[in-house]
Amino acid sequence: MAICSICGRNAGLMEEVCEGCKNGTTPGSSQVRASRGTRNMIFGLLWFFGGATVTALTLASSSSREGGGPVIYAVGAIVIGFIQFLIGLFSWLMNRNRED
Ligand SMILES: [Zn+2]
C-alpha cells in the first residue's frame, strides 16, 4: 500500500499518486498542487537571490585574484533556483484557477 504523494490518500499498491490525482478529480488536489507550486516559487526565489547575492559578493572579492570556484557554485544556485521557480510558477498557473 502506498500513499498518494499529492493528496496523501491510499494510492494503491505500486502507485505514486492515486487515481483521483492522476485524473485531477480528487477534491482539493489542484489547490494542493497550486500551493506546492507556490512553495517551489518561494524556494526557487530564495536560491536565485541567495545565489545572486553570493555571486555579487564572491565576484567583488575574487576579481582581484585567480580562480573563482565559489562564483561558479553561486551561478549554479541561481540556475537551479530559476528552474525551480519556473517549475513552481507553471504548476501554480495551471492549478490556481481550477475548480474542483
Ligand atoms: Zn491523490
Structural description of this entry:
It is a single chain. The chain has 100 residues and is mainly alpha-helical. It has a domain at 27-95. Helices cover 66% and strands 5% of the residues. A two-stranded antiparallel ribbon has the order 1-2. A hairpin with a 6-residue loop joins strand 1 and strand 2 (10-12). Helix 2 (29-62) runs antiparallel to helix 3 (69-95). The chain is elongated, with a radius of gyration of 19 Å. The structure holds zinc ion.
Offer a concise description of the structure:
With 100 residues, this protein is mainly alpha-helical. The chain is built from 3 helices and 2 strands; from the N terminus they run ββααα. The chain is 66% helix and 5% strand.
Major sheet attributes:
2 strands, antiparallel
* Distinct small molecules bound, one entry per kind: zinc ion
The low-confidence parts are: none
Q: Whole-Å distance between the termini? A: 26 Å
Overall 3D geometry?
A: elongated
Major sheet: arrangement of strands: 1-2
What's the number of extended β-strand segments? 2
How many DSSP helices? 3
Please state the CA-atom Rg, rounded to the nearest Å: 19 Å
- Could you give the order of the helices and strands? EEHHH
What is the share of helical residues?
A: 55-70%
Please identify the structural class as seen in this structure. Answer: mainly alpha
Mean pLDDT: 82
Strand content: 5-15%
